Amino acid sequence: MLGFLKKPVVVSMEINMNLMALTVMGLISRLWGLSYPRAVVFDEVYYGQFVSLYMKRIFFVDDSGPPFGHMLLALGGYLGGFDGNFLWNRIGAEYSMNVPVWSLRLLPALAGALCVPLAYQILVELQFSHCAAFGAALLILLENSLITQSRFMLLESVLIFFILLAVLSYLKFYNLQRHSSFSGSWWFWLLLTGVACSCAVGVKYMGLFTYALLLTIAGLHFWHMIGDQNLSNVALMCHFLARGLALIIIPVAMYLSFFYVHLILLYRSGPHDQIMTSAFQASLEGGLARITQGQPLEVAYGSQITLRNVLGKPMQCWLHSHTNTYPIRYDNGRGSSHQQQVTCYPFKDVNNWWIVKDPGMQQLVVSNPPRPVRHGHIVQLVHGITTRYLNTHDVAAPLSPHSQEVSCYIDYNISMPAQNLWRVEIVNRESDTDVWKTILSEVRFVHVNTSAVLKASGFLFQLSGASLPEWGYRQLEVVGEKLSKGYHQSMIWNVEEHRYGKSQEQKEREVELHSPTQMDISKNLSFMAKFTELQWKILTLKNEDTEHKYSSSAFDWITMDTNIAYWLHPTSGAQIHLLGNVVTWASANVAALLYTCLSLWYLIRRRRKIYDIPEDAWQLWVSAGGVCGGGWAVNYLPFFLMEKTLFLYHYLPALTFQILLIPIVLQHLGNHLCRSLLLKSMFSALVVAWFSSVYLVYCTFSPVTYGEPSLSAAELKDLRWKDSWNILIRKQ
User: Are 652 and 568 part of one and the same domain?
Assistant: First the structure.
C-alpha cells in the first residue's frame, strides 16, 4: 500500500529563459526609481482625486469611463496605507509624507512591465519564430512612450495589459481547439479571454474596440467550424454555448460586478451626487439622506413639498417663485402677463416650497387620515410663502416665445381668469392607480385647460450660456410646453423634501416641521436601478471640452508631431515628456504600409491563380494581420469620429498592435523575399543595425522618459528633433 514511497517524488518543469529574461527586464525598466519624481505628474492630478474619494468612501461620477481602473489605482493606495488626505489641485505639487507614491504607481508599472512578455507570447501563439517574438518584446521594452505612461498613476498601461492578455488568451484557446476541445486548459483560456475583455472595458471604454475585434474573430472561426462535417450538431451547439458563456455572459456579469463593488465602497454623499436623482442621493449616507430621513412616503392633499427637476444638468434646480413679477414688456417689445415669476432655482431656498391643494376644498393641511394623491388626480400647487397658485395661460414665455409663460396668479381684476388646475401623471408608475410618492415617483404636471406640460426649459438656454435677465435674477426659465410628445427629462419632476402640513396659519406654516413616519429610501432603490442611472450619467454627462495646450488630433499621432510635457523640476532642467521612440514609430508605419501593399499584391495574384507563397504561410500572414493590423485599426480609426479633447496617449493601444506588426513583416520578408543566402545575410545585418538604432534612440530620450539625469539647455535643444515638439527650456 505504501509502495509509492520506495521511489522519490520527482517534479520536472520547463522554464522559458527568453520569457524570464524579458519579464525581468520589463520589471526593471518600469519599476526603477518609481517614486521619482515625488510630485504630481500630469493626469495624476485627475486620477488622484478619485483615489482620495475611494479612501474616504465618498461617491463620485467620472464621465471618462467605468470604475474598475479607478478601483485598481485605489487598491494601490489602500495597500500603501493612504488615508486620502492630499489636495490634488496642481501638477508638480510635492507629495506630502502620507502619500505612498511607490504604492500608488505600482499597479500601472507592473501592468506595463508584463506587457513585454505578453508581446512575446502573442507572436509565439501566432506561430512566428521565437526570434521574431523576442524582437517584438524588445520593441515594447524599449518604447519610451510606453515606459513613461506605465510609471505613473495612469490607466493606459493597465488597459494595454488587459487588451494583450485578452488577445493572448484567445490565441491559446484557438490553438488548443484543434486537438483538445473542452479540456481544462481549453476552458481556462476561453474564460480568461472573457475576463480580460471585461477588465479592459472596465478600465476604459476604449477596451470595447479590442473586445469587438475578438468577438468578430471568434465569430469567423465559429463560422468555419459550422462547415466542418466532422462536428455533429450537438458538438456545434456546445461550442456555441461555451463561447456565448465565456465571451458575452461572463463579461457582462463582471462589468456589473465592477459597479456593484464601486457602489458598495462609495456609500457616503459627496460633491458629485448632486447630478443624480433624489432617490439615488437619498440612498447615500449624509447629504440628502439626512434631510429626507423621516419624511412621509405618500404625497397627500395638504403636503408641503419641494419639486426637483429630474434632468439635473447642467445643474440641479427646484421649482421656485418669489414676489417679483414679470416685466410688463420685455426688451424685444413683447408683452407679458405681469404675473408673479416662476423659475427653476439651483439652490435650496424657502421659496422652493409648494403646497398640494385639493381644488374642491379650501384647507391647506393634511387631513386625518391623509388622502393620498394618485396618478391622474387634479391638483392645485400653492406657493408656500406667497400663497399664490401655480398658473399658465396663452401668453408667450420670456425666452421661449413658442411656449406658454408659467406664473403664480395675481388677480388684477382684468379679463384674465386663473387657470391653475394641473393633472398629476406618474411617468414611472406600475399601474394607473399608483400613489404619488416622495423621491421615488417621477411626475409630469399637465395643465388641464391647455394641455401644456410644466417644463424647465432654462436648461437649453443655460447650455448656451443664457438664462433669465436681471429681472429674473439669472434663474432658469420654466414654461408650459405645448408640444408634449414623449417624456423628456426636463418635463419630469420629483418630490425631494416633504412634510405633512398641519397649520392653516401662514406664519406657523412657514416654520412648520413634521416627521410622522420613518422611511429608508435606500431599501427601495435596487442595485440595477442605481447601476442604470449611474451608467446613463457616465455615458451622457460630458464636461465642456476645452482646448488643452497639449491636445492633438489623430492625424498628429502617426508621425508623432506632438508630445506632452508631464513634469518639470521646479529649479533644474529635469523633466518628463510623453515622447515615443522615433525609429520604432516610423518603422511601425512602414511595416503597416508594407503589410497592406503586400496583402493587396498577394490577393491580386491569387485571384489570377498565382501563388507566391505557400498556403500555410498565407494563412499565417492573414491571421497575423487580422490580430495586429486589426488591433491597430480598431484602436485608432474611431478617434476620427470622436468629438472630444484628444491626447497622444490615446494612440498607445493602437501603437502597441502596430509594433507587433514590425517583426511579423520582417520575418515574412526574410523568409519569402530574401531567397539567396547573400540576401538573407544582408537583410539580417540591416535588421541588427536597425535594432541598434532603436536602442540608441531609447538611450537618447531616456532622460526625458525617466526624468533624470537633468539636462542642460543645449542638451534639451538637441532633443527637439521636430519643431512641433514642446521641450521645456528655462530662460537663463
Answer: yes
What's the pTM value of the predicted model, to 2 decimals? 0.82
Q: What is the DSSP secondary-structure string of 305-340?
A: EEEEES---SS--EEEEEEEE--SB-TTS-B----E
Residue 148: inside a domain: no
Q: Which of 693, 666, 590 is nearest to 136 (CA)?
A: 666
Same domain, 508 and 593: no
Q: Where would I find the H helices in 339-497?
A: 458-463
Contact 39, 567 (CB under 8 A): yes
CB 644 within 8 A of CB 650: no
Q: Is residue 420 part of a domain?
A: yes
Amino acid at 710: S
573 and 512 in a common domain: no
Q: For the chain of 732 residues, list the mean pLDDT of each consecutive stretch of 10.
A: 66 85 96 94 94 94 91 96 91 92 96 97 95 96 96 96 98 90 93 97 96 96 91 93 96 97 91 79 76 80 91 78 89 84 88 92 87 93 91 88 89 78 92 88 92 79 62 89 73 88 68 44 74 90 68 92 92 91 96 96 93 91 95 96 90 97 95 87 94 96 93 90 86 62
Between CA 107 and CA 115 the distance in angstroms is: 13
In DSSP terms, which residues pair with 454 in a beta bridge?
A: 480
Distances (CA, A) of 112 to 104, 123, 127, 413, 708: 14, 18, 24, 77, 20
Query: Structurally, how many domains does the chain consist of?
Result: 2
Residue 33 DSSP one-character state: T
Shared domain check, 497 and 388: yes
What CA–CA distance (Å, rounded) separates 207 from 201? 4
Decide if 186 contacts 180 (C-beta within 8 A): yes
Query: In the 8-state DSSP scheme, what is residue 434?
Result: P
Q: Are 360 and 442 in the same domain? A: yes
Residue 318 forms beta bridges with which residues?
308, 345
Q: How many helices (H) and strands (E) does the chain have?
A: 23, 15
Same domain, 376 and 469: yes
Q: From CA 682, how far away is CA 609, in angstroms rounded? A: 32
Enclosing H/E stretch for 382: strand 378-383
Q: Do residues 509 and 646 share a domain?
A: no
Q: Domain of 599?
A: 553-731
Q: Are strands 303-309 and 493-500 parallel, antiparallel or unpaired?
A: antiparallel
Distance CA 454, CA 445 (A): 6
Residue 693 CB contacts under 8 Å (≥ 6 apart), including other chains: 583
Question: Is the N-terminal amide bond of 417 cis, ω within 30° of 0?
Answer: no
How far is the C-alpha of 683 from the C-alpha of 392, rounded, in Å? 83
We report the CATH number of the domain holding residue 350 as 2.80.10.50
341: β partners: 407
Please give the grid coordinates belonging to residue 253: 456579469
Identify the domain boundary among 518, 537, 564. Answer: 518
Q: What letters, b where the CB count within 10 A reaches 16 and e where it falls short, cover 452-469? A: bbbbbbbbeebeeeebbe
Cis peptide before 37 (omega within 30 of 0): yes
Give the number of other Cβ atoms within 10 Å of residue 216's Cβ: 13
